[in-house]
Amino acid sequence: MVESDGESSAIHFNRTTRGHCDYRNSCGNAITVPKRLRIYFRFNRRLLGRLPKIAYGLVRDVYQAVLGRDDVVPGMAATVQTFGELAHWHPHVHAIATEGAFTRDGGFVGLPKLASEPFLKLWEHEVFRLLLDEGRIAPETVGQMRSWQHSGFSVDRSVLISAGDGDALERLVQYIARCPFSLDRIVKVTPTGQVVYRAEHQDCRKFPDPDSDDLRAGVSRNFQVFDPLDFLAEVTQHIPDTGEHTIRYYGWYSNKSRGMRAKGAMLKNIPFAAIDAEEEDAPFRKFCRSRWAALIKKVYEVDPLRCPKCGGQMKIISFIEKKDQADVIEKILKHGGLWREEASRSPPKEASTIPFERTYTCR
Question: DSSP for 269-322?
Fold first, then answer.
């Protein structure tokens, strides 16, 4: 179930990015904040949600500076991952961005190979400014951290997806949209309910302890033994708030930008998507049917249009809805010996005859 949920999220993520990346290169970005600052995002989802927008801002600013144009924007899809290898709190941004920027008329301007240093400097500056404006840290903290040899900020842009490599794009999307923990890494559950959970890699590293308030590094290890309630607390801290967007689109991929392009196409009398509700063989309806089957096959690894008896390819004859055609559904199921009559409900119990005393109160 965990893997299926992650894959369905990846499908939604991939739906926007894949069509654009078939003809231009894209770059995967992993952007982190230092351990000392992670605690400020742990109990403030609003603050956490600002990180992907900051990440897009620095990508846009660097691209525009390199190209020498302020009328171009990249396309970017981003998500915030809040977990580390041992399901501990580790907020960081994963993003897929085009290796170039779009002009207002839809043209694309490619970029030369860029170093990570400009992105890192801007990222460090913007995160410090965010926490200073929110009153979370003092200027002395900023000065101290900037004096360190390694500040803890990082920007990794080493993953490059070649134009047209849809499989590589899909693997990257599945990775960055995966679930906070993996059932395969639960080594065992002891008779007392303790959970032994292993890290993704075998080498030992200094992960934070589950009961750590400041998220500082603990002893080197590649596994963690959780008490039952501690394991639940460690996992449930990664559940987003109700209605919170976990995948966000910016620049050329943003909902606003796509909507404006669709509106512009309609004004030019260009059919953006010709839909004929009455025509069963319309190209758009055929496309929707094929997407429906493909998505079910991708998530559940079962082809809904393959005959379970002979393995041949089936086709959809019609859809039957329960609210309007309940009698048709019953007739088909009875013919196939699959109809089950609902058991009649027993009559309600008789009302209690125990006397009661009515009381009154004064107000």
Answer: T--SS---TT-TT-HHHHHHHHHHHHHHHHHHS--TTB-TTT-PBP-------T
Residue 344, token pair as written in the block: 């009649």
Q: How confident is the model at residue 352 (pLDDT cuts 50, 70, 90)?
A: low
In angstroms, rounded to a whole number, what is the distance separating the alpha carbons of residues 164 and 275? 28
Q: Letter for the amino acid at 32?
A: T
* HSE-up of residue 361 (Cα within 13 Å, Cβ side): 1
DSSP assignment of 97-135 equals: EESEEE-TTS-EEE-----SHHHHHHHHHHHHHHHHHTT
Q: How far apart are CA 110 and CA 201, in angstroms?
A: 36
pTM for the complete prediction?
A: 0.70
State whether residue 39 is helix, strand or coil: helix
Given a contact cutoff of 8 angstroms between Cβ atoms, the answer to whether 82 and 90 are in contact is yes
- Confidence class for position 280, pLDDT limits 50, 70, 90: low
Q: pLDDT tens across 158-217, in order?
A: 888 888 888 888 889 888 888 888 889 999 999 999 999 999 888 888 888 777 776 677
